Amino acid sequence: MIYLASHCNDTELAVDAWAEAVAWLPARVREGLSGYWRWQDRQAGLYGKLLLRRVGQAATGRVPDLSQLRTDTYQRPSLADMPDFDFNISHTAGLVVCGGATGMGRLGVDVERIGAVDITEFRRVFTEGEYAYLSGLDEPAAEFFRLWTRKEAVMKADGRGFYLDPSGIDCLSERVSVGGVGYGVMPLDLGNAYAAHVAARSVEAVCMLG
Amino acid sequence: MTSQANKKIEAVYPLNELQRALLFHHRADPTHDEGLIQVHFRLTGLLDRRRFLEAWQQTFRRHPVLRASVHWENISQPVWVIHPAAAPDIQWLEGAGAQERSPSDQWQAFLAADRNTPLELSKSPACRLTGLSVDGDTHYFAWTSHHLLLDGWSAEVVLRDVLRFYAGEDLAGAPIPSHKDYLRWKQQQRPEEATAFWRQQLDRHRGPTLFPAARGSQVEVRAVVTGALKAGVERYARARGLSLNTVVQGVWACLLGRYFGTPTVSFGTTVSGRPPEMPGFETVAGMYVHVLPKIVDLEPAGDFLQEIQLVNGRSQPYSYLTEEELYDDTVSPPFNNLLTVQNFPWKALSGGGLRVTDYHGDMTSTYPLSCVVVLRDEWTIVLRHLTDSVTQRQAEWFLNGFRQLLERLTALADGATFTVAMSREDLGPPPRGGARPGVAAYVPPANRTQVELVRIWSGLLPVDRIGIDDDFFDLGGTSFLALRLFNRIEQHFGRRISPSILLHHRSVRRLAERVSDTGEADGWNNLVPIRVAGQLPPLFCFHAGEGNVLMYQELLAHLHPDRPVYALQPNGIDGASELDGSIETMAAHYLAEIDQLGAPDPLNLVAYCYSGAICLEIGRLLLASGRPAPRIVGTDIDPPGYAPAESGGRTKRRRGSLRWYWGHLRLGLWDTAFEQFAGDVLPDAWLGEELRLRLRARRLKMGLIDAYDRYAWPDYAGEVLLLRSRDLRRWKTHDHVVNAWQRVTGGRLKLGDIDSGHEDMYRAPAVEEVASKIEAYVTSGRS
């Protein structure tokens, strides 16, 4: 079962609320947050950790210890003391999403806010087929974000993220394959303003925490 | 012109300053166009769609501005053009079906999408009309237009006419005055009298009221005032004989005063711009609203609210003067916040069995902070702020403070005076912030690759200034933005690099190493980039007599945020390169580096003390090569023939000669003599670190002075603006300085004054005034 949770991030927290919320974070994580220039990014970082706590508890029955956070050579985060539990966080303007599961291998989550887009700027991230498909649409924006979040979710599930060449991964078909490994991709309903997907070897069972 | 051609265009008008500013914003990002106006409302009553469209068409025939388009490409200056006819159409949205989405949700989704859909200004009509019928009696309607052509006042004018036409009224008998009538009326006014009045007002300010200039998006917070509070304020105003407009201006002034802690505050106020002397002009749609300055003394002798009211009355006859006419290269607005009070009587909009409800007007502002107060059955206070400039907490402080001060007013006995001191008692300290916590110090780019990368980052990231050690993700970067970043890198540098590089090369410095084959080899000798991002022509600031350029750092915060700034430092400052031996060589080297940047002519040059000579020589080089003269702003620049300190004023002996040593030792100048000796005789290895640096600085300074003394000061056929400090004006050398520059420039010297000492010109608070005068001069062009 993949557990998912999201949090709206469109309002700046009051000083007291912020201080209260970051108080329980390990000092190293707190310092990391203070590097962000904009409150939107600082808060996205905070909410990501809050959601991880929630999702971790739902999936494993215990609250993750954030001092165990590590990143691997591909800059992918994991918890050192919970090797069976994998999680993934994604944020975009106004929203943060976290997914997590145990005993299922890696999973990837991606969310983007749908907005105007010049698809020529993204020519190199799509396969020939994908780009031809998007170019043929009168209003490609929504479909662009749908396709892109599918792709990024798969790249994150693979674990190598941007170390993969996105233009080599065809996301038009239902199951997406990377180097011979197949991934299931499921759309997440987070409102009309957002496109979001979760990808894993199996996405049969997904639970959105309220 | 043939009659056929005549039919194509009814009139052409150049854009005024505000319109040009709005056009700039439109072109910068049409999908987040701050000038877009979205007026939307609900129509109740049986609607005949065909008749409603005809009513709009008739209204378009009545108001020429509705048939206008805007043009800026391939012409010398942007214009708006009125076409004889325009064919507006209404797009009626199909209902989504109640199961899928409620009509209200569908409408909100449409409004959100519509707001981010660029308006095609170059096509007539430059607006969109959209409707959604909920049922036979209820309809949503939106009219999306642009502030470049229409002001807020126009919305009601147009809607009223639409409903009158819809009701079958014939308005042919009530023609409206044309824009040409307005221009004729303007010509009959005496702008010099109005300008003198407003300049006198501007002279009253003691320190500008400026929020940090930044980019970011405009968001708003709002509050509503009703019931006892509203009635209490109205009662107080009546009892004191004050207009509500005065009360609101007073409250706003108190808030600004508490926020900035200054004895005076200034803000812009909007006026309708429709002259009461022109009958019927209040029923004309167009762009006539403009912003006039309001300066409020917060330490007045008498009642400050009465004072505000008095000045408001006196300013009324001069309120036709536009920003363009009021400000020039010597005078610029001392504020970047706006107060709009909408207190015109609101009459219900209805006609032909239709009624407008849930009316939502729209406001446009490019200021960091704007306050709109709508005085109707209930009062609405809207604070619109630029997120990177004024934080939400700060905006909320203003909003809460507004309410607190209104409450204080109502608590006063009707005859009692409201004072600024009371406002200080009531308001808590304003929240500070917006600064970046715990982030590495700003380091500017040092070579061309870094400059180009900073430019690319600036186009993508929502921040004002990017240093080469800043982390892409700390600045708001996302993987999605990374894709666009690498696409732009590929286009600019012709190199395809994987976005994964960014995970380990997260700063401009690190990324530049991967992008540039030549590494550090493409650095500059003299040019120091201080801020490279920005659309405006850059400013080049030249070193002073000791070679350093650090004093220009503070200037940056007060210049236009879109203006790149570069400083020029001399060769030899690093102790490695050879010092240029003459002003001519320096000028040639500096100009060569400036030209590598491809900055447009005329160049904008800023000199301080020593560097007036260098700028003059650069001007001479430019003219000799057939290029236009640069705009030179000299701040307390040394005059031709002036011997700067230590150039031998005391002794004319050659430095380092036996007679020189003898003279110095006799006068007890042991340190100077020793340093000279050490520098002349001892090998570098024998000297301590500190002495070596001191000697290097001394060698540089002396070299610069020698070059200055040797400069021939040829006549210069360009203009120079000399900004004089209070010290310069008092010094006995003052007349010599002015006369000498007059002579060299053949009488083309302009003068401006700064209210500070010589040493403090580039420090707060004087630096703001220096920056605003530099901006005014380089923006307005030559006089």
From TrEMBL, chain A:
Domain of life according to the entry: Bacteria
One GO molecular-function entry: magnesium ion binding
Residue span(s) of domain 4'-phosphopantetheinyl transferase N-terminal: 16-100
Domain 4'-phosphopantetheinyl transferase: 107-177
Keywords: Transferase
Keyword Metal-binding: no
Keyword Cell inner membrane: no
Pfam families noted in UniProt: AASDHPPT_N (PF22624), ACPS (PF01648)
InterPro entries per record: 4-PPantetheinyl_Trfase_dom, 4-PPantetheinyl_Trfase_dom_sf, AASDHPPT_N, P-Pant_transferase_sf
GO CC annotations on file: cytosol
Signal peptide positions (record): none
Gene Ontology process terms (BP): lysine biosynthetic process via aminoadipic acid
PANTHER family in the cross-refs: L-AMINOADIPATE-SEMIALDEHYDE DEHYDROGENASE-PHOSPHOPANTETHEINYL TRANSFERASE, PHOSPHOPANTETHEINE TRANSFERASE
Family: Belongs to the P-Pant transferase superfamily. Gsp/Sfp/HetI/AcpT family.
Name of the molecule in the record: 4'-phosphopantetheinyl transferase
Provenance organism: Neolewinella xylanilytica
Automatic annotation (TrEMBL), chain B:
Domain of life: Bacteria
Keyword set, alphabetical order: Phosphopantetheine, Phosphoprotein
UniProt signal peptide: none
InterPro entries: AB_hydrolase_fold (IPR029058), ACP-like_sf (IPR036736), CAT-like_dom_sf (IPR023213), Condensation_dom (IPR001242), PKS_PP-bd (IPR020806), PP-bd_ACP (IPR009081), Thioesterase (IPR001031)
Record bears the keyword DNA damage: no
GO biological process: amino acid activation for nonribosomal peptide biosynthetic process; secondary metabolite biosynthetic process
Domain Carrier: 444-519
Cellular component, GO, one term: cytoplasm
GO molecular function, one term: phosphopantetheine binding
One Pfam family it belongs to: Condensation
Protein name: Thioesterase domain-containing protein
Higher taxonomy: Bacteria, Pseudomonadati, Bacteroidota, Saprospiria, Saprospirales
